[in-house]
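Run folding on both entries below.
>entry_1
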Amino acid sequence: MSVFVVVGAGPVGRETARLLAADGHEVRLVSRSGTAADGSVIPVALDARDGDGLAGVSIGAEAVFMCAMAPYTKWPTDFPPIMEGVAEAAEKLRARLIVLGNVYGYGSEAPSPLTAAVPLAPTSIKGRVRTAMWERALAAKVPALEVRASDYLGNGAGSIFTLMTLPSLLAGMPATVSGDLDALHAWTFTKDVARTLVAASRYSGEWGRAFLVPSQHASVRSLSVRFAKLAGIAAPDLRVLSEEDLEALGREDELMRELPEMAYLYRRPCIVDASDTERLLGVSASSLDTMIEDTLRKD
């Protein structure tokens, strides 16, 4: 039995902790609120910015999973100190560091399909934040890996689609969309992210690299139609927002203000090639229907 520490109790962090505990390991799930995943996971209430405190509650840990999420509107201010605290703790513990990231760091000029080997070249504020976080992990005096996801689907998942489009769609109202309705887009299941994180922690090859999470690809239009069918509701009425519409929404809503800089991800195909993850880690993507059904699930 090994000891693992998971920082962040969102959908991915909780599932990662659950999977590790199911394998018979001692797992400590760290969050500011001390959220519990299930009875076999030890909840710990702690602010991860406190590197010394995090090291203190993580004694004996073989690896630390950085799954914490800063508020979407506060990434530049809130993410760096969290990453610093987690990296400091991993260094003090001499524990391996596995970071949950995303594809923002590749930037708007990145090729499609994306592979993990594509150099990071961020073109957005959020992309630069994510890139800096990975650079801090690489600079740590311990082995580090990053697992990069695309837009989330799954119970409790937060993404542009689940926050902006899905609520209206499920209510039978016109649903707003940003970008090309028919461009293929990578959708990542939160439970597949957790499975990739756990598999990455066991990777026996050279660390200091990234893995993309195996994902399913569908246009926003086809995804919306599938959601409507599985939810048993009428076909969706989708309305594309212009850049001016997005800017107007941003003047009224703090979260909507963050969307324009990431809108490029929906203006053209965003395809993820995670074949090396499938080959090296043995993880494959769940079906799109499985992702949708879990997103629709009511706890």
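>entry_2
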Amino acid sequence: MRIFVTGGAGYIGSHTCVELLNNNYEIVVIDNFSNSKRDVIDKIKEITKKDFVFYEGDVTDKALLSKIFKENKIDAVIHFAGFKAVGESVSKPLMYYHNNLESTINLLEVMNEFDVKKIAFSSSATVYGKPDSLPIKEDFKLSTTNPYGTTKLMIEMILNDLYKSDNEWSIAILRYFNPIGAHESGLIGENPNDIPNNLMPYIMKVAVGELDHLNIFGNDYDTHDGTGVRDYIHVVDLAKGHIKAIEKVLKSTGCDTYNLGTGTGYSVLDIVKAFESVNNVKIPYEIVGRRPGDIDACYADPTKSLKLLGFKATKNLEDMCKDSYNFVRRSKHE
């Protein structure tokens, strides 16, 4: 089986490529390196000892997509490619709507043309907005607080409408919670080209001395220690969730949505303390004001993914902290 992976050099994409190759899938990968590094392609090959077809380019380039589908017999698609910084989406909404929606529509049109109607889509827990209760189930009402989240929700709507129009489609919409960690080899991990938006890359920069302290945004939330609580999932577990999703779409039709999380909420301070303890390193921090739009707590009910996909996260917070630090230290020495 040959899987086309868009955004395959990115953080989650690269780890999923490794798991696909380890599970004996063939892969065809596209990435434009707008938020990833070129050497990741070689590192995926180094980890798996397997080769694959790679195209440098943009998913908004419909002619290139047609060329890829002509040159390769594709069985299914995993669609990661898209802009993903919440803050940037607020300041540059048109860029986000143009890129994320046009790339997806182009991809779906080309898939339709070549009769490849099986896709796993990279969505996000941001589509739940501020949930009324916890844990979050897939049938909760949906709302968004920023253009990035809105593009994810719009694409979910497009996919649902596409299935309604043609029941031959098989679609898995995967709502990620908060991926952290890195591959245990230390070769690939989260390494954004721009200013990190997420907690763990910030902790990393403090751990290796690039920043002198971590800013914690608010300690007056309604949580056990006042700092925001999130469902952190190891990126390798998340990648394995995509394998389960692809297995499902390859053998069935339908359009279904799955939470990919652990079902456990950890606060910002829980993460900081675990990181310090596991890696024997001090992370100085300062409490600053809340960020607009941040919510008290957010964690998944992962029951549906377990029941219908057979997916369960197995790595713990210590694994996430250890593997993250291993990756950043190895990167510093390259």
